Amino acid sequence: MATTTHLLIIIIFTITMTTSSTSLPSLTMEQNQIATKIIDAMISSGSFEDWSGAFLNSNDEINGPVLTSTLFLPKTSVEGINATSSLVVSYHIVPQWLDFSNISLMKPFSRIPTLLSGNFIVVTNNSASGFTLDGVLISEPDLFVSPSIVIHRMASPFNFSRYGRCDL
Ligand SMILES: *[C@@H]1O[C@H](CO)[C@@H](O)[C@H](O)[C@H]1NC(C)=O
Ligand SMILES: *[C@@H]1O[C@H](CO)[C@@H](O)[C@H](O)[C@H]1NC(C)=O
Ligand SMILES: *[C@@H]1O[C@H](CO)[C@@H](O)[C@H](O)[C@H]1NC(C)=O
Ligand SMILES: *[C@@H]1O[C@H](CO)[C@@H](O)[C@H](O)[C@H]1NC(C)=O
């Protein structure tokens, strides 16, 4: 039963991924520079817990230009997903302002482009009681919201090896 469901999900994934792709307008040189600065700060912070402080300090309109963006902040760590990997960091940042009201309108299998080139976060369940992205529950939606930045807390880190590529 579990295997059948799993297989079905993979089939649906494959069909949807070839039909509905959201593409991201490419970032300007300045946006890329800010993104690099943010990613470096988060890598140096050393842990998921310290990601939010590093993100907010390096992406602060008072101290310089801001990258309009959304951070998915893992609540717990998971063996095998390293908070100091630039790939992991990049995959948890979406260069768009998406508060929970934006995300809650997305249909299952919608793909959200991330700073990790060619890798998307996938809406896996859009029910109000259990809204998941990449199979991970949004445990605290809209944890932080400013005019240019949103942070959502996730129950655990995303696994881009499993969900990130569009061409599954
Ligand atoms: C995480 O990555 C850093 C830098 O690549 C490495 O030094 C560290 O050992 C890694 N930690 C784990 C738990 O894999
Ligand atoms: C998110 O929601 C706001 C307010 O409803 C809207 O103005 C904005 O266009 C939405 N953004 C996206 C990317 O859909
Ligand atoms: C979505 O989550 C809800 C609440 O946790 C659950 O009842 C439902 O079965 C889930 N739907 C899918 C397609 O997994
Ligand atoms: C991430 O996904 C890959 C591919 O599905 C899998 O091999 C790996 O075990 C997953 N890692 C974690 C920490 O779940």
From TrEMBL:
Record's SUPFAM superfamilies? FAS1 domain
Q: Which UniProt keywords apply?
A: Signal
| Signal sequence, renumbered to the chain | 1-21
What PANTHER family does the record tag this protein with? GENOME ASSEMBLY, CHROMOSOME: A03, OS02G0491300 PROTEIN-RELATED
This chain belongs to the protein called: FAS1 domain-containing protein
Q: Source organism lineage?
A: Eukaryota, Viridiplantae, Streptophyta, Embryophyta, Tracheophyta
